[in-house]
């Protein structure tokens, strides 16, 4: 991964580039959630003990490919999407994939600060 | 009429015009049950000019804070709720008599002080607060409290009423002719700066975070120069049949108590569910669960960090999206460094801030991303088209939250546009299109979507249209959580769709027969049906009595389906643990479950008579344009399943996504509903025969006098 590519996939997006997703939380229900970077998505997709992320995987794949500009990551998400597992398991499978990509990018951008990751 | 047990026997009427008070005998109001029933009847009796008051900030507005026979008792999930009724502030197309509700210990302390409700009329000449110590009622100067936040105000009043530390934990209060003692602090309901500045976004706060806000209750207090109401009491509630009450408690435990070792449910809280704070994220540090008076569950929290106490549900997330975007932006390092706790703390900080300033967070949550976008587009900021000096580049920080909330609470800077509500403010700014096209999700009456889209969750939208506000009734919403979470988790549905529909329908007496399962069929071919009108009728009438008047908690009642019991049948209507069992044990009456619903019908019809006098017409009951013009899109949700049949009549959980309402269809459904209620289908107004049939001839006479009586169906 080149520094330019690492900067590209970790950049903060403009408003036109956001990923629209949602969070499910009882009893509040569904609330919209606009995601402006891969890092923000990484936090979002983890959910919490009392909330769930909610995202359309086809749209996610498209966003990673066309907006973030990371076809490799988009392909990995496409693989996850085709697996015969439930939505929550798909989210769980997504976390380490995105995390590994972020770590890789960060190690390129800030090789001196590995232990901070 | 024999004095009923459970009631304190007195209603406190405060006349702020003359700074006097007098006592209304509760006996005159028994038939209205408590809570909302009391509020509606008191509004009807005490309002000088229902027809001409168009804004809740008018001094002629009547605001009532009412408990019920259950308040101050240990009826499960019913002892601590409190109902607020008043003319609204900030609703569109017009204000109307409305309601809100909060938990905690206010209604129970009011009862222990010997009062069933407090109703306030007029406007004080200077800021005051009401200080009630058992029978002793004082209207006191609040100039030293004006400008203080809600937490500080409560502490000052509590210290003044009784400093428990100096008396070994006990304080004494006059109790009639004798002297009572208590270890409790005074229970205070107060406004913050938002209410003082009469913002439509101002709410009432009790404790750290129990709030009543929909309808601008805070602005009503502020317009009356009323800072707070405080009660302390040393009495108790007289229960008609304590043994029956305790037996029902034990039965409830036997039937429904969750096994704490097995329970890991991520579902909607149900009767008997485990205690758990309803806060969005990972809790920041040590915390313990707290609850309203007498509740068998606990859904709030006290935090060791010292703030964010009782910041629950939506208040805990209103600022989260902004916090996340600000902190992460493009910064990979932060998201990998386990900063969830930090995010949660910032969200709790923002929730606490809103509670201190007395701001209703539901409406402002949708505003934040809109402001973010307007700023990014260069249309909002210093010297821009929408002028504002707030530091939008720091939106997501505590610093921005401080300045934004101050602006909203004081009606300054960007807050000046939203003093009358979010939608009126957006309209004033020339961006009505963003409401019409669904960029902003405010689907009805200028109120924010609750999280459940009316194109999918039909009853939520319909019941809201037929009442005064976002209905906020989770009675059927259990389905959304249980079914959709099962789908997302990839596990079997806990109950087949048709059986689930049957379980719900069998609780919907007297409006839906036990075999009319189609009342739970949310298929598009059934969405404007007559039977769905009767289903919503049940929701409205059940809610008006058992939840809004008897004050059973919305998070637990109705309990239609309960997975803690083998046959999945919930407590609602059950002759051992149902609503009427509690009512009869506490009051000594002998009513049935359906009798309570019938009382709700009467209360609801008095509401509608008030709305008619206030100018409400069938044409008011409409969704925002985007509900009709745009499909509920697939782009953010994986699923929105609900029981429904296909063309062949086969039941399953079917996808509600991708559909929209039609204007003609909603109008057809409204006509079904008006007929079911016996209202004039052209206007939505009640008819004489209907009102007289419910012993409300005086109401019919007044409507006729005002030209607002509905025509009888020919």
Automatic annotation (TrEMBL), chain A:
**Top-level taxon in the UniProt lineage:** Bacteria
According to UniProt, the name of this protein is Uncharacterized protein
Organism name:
Shewanella canadensis
UniProtKB/TrEMBL annotation, chain B:
Q: Which UniProt keywords apply?
A: 4Fe-4S, Iron, Iron-sulfur, Metal-binding, Oxidoreductase
Q: Does the keyword Membrane apply?
A: no
Where does the Aldehyde ferredoxin oxidoreductase N-terminal domain start and stop, copy by copy? 7-235
CC cofactor? [4Fe-4S] cluster; tungstopterin
Database matches in Pfam families: AFOR_C, AFOR_N
Recorded superkingdom: Bacteria
* InterPro entries documented for this protein: Ald_Fedxn_OxRdtase_dom2, Ald_Fedxn_OxRdtase_dom3, Ald_Fedxn_OxRdtase_N, Ald_Fedxn_OxRdtase_N_sf, OxRdtase_Ald_Fedxn_C, Tungsten_al_ferr_oxy-like_C, W-dependent_AOR
Molecular function GO labels: 4 iron, 4 sulfur cluster binding; electron transfer activity; metal ion binding; oxidoreductase activity, acting on the aldehyde or oxo group of donors, iron-sulfur protein as acceptor
- Which Gene3D superfamilies does the record match to this protein? Aldehyde Ferredoxin Oxidoreductase Protein, subunit A, domain 2, Aldehyde Ferredoxin Oxidoreductase Protein, subunit A, domain 3, Aldehyde ferredoxin oxidoreductase, N-terminal domain
Protein family membership: Belongs to the AOR/FOR family.
What is the protein name stated in its UniProt record? Aldehyde ferredoxin oxidoreductase
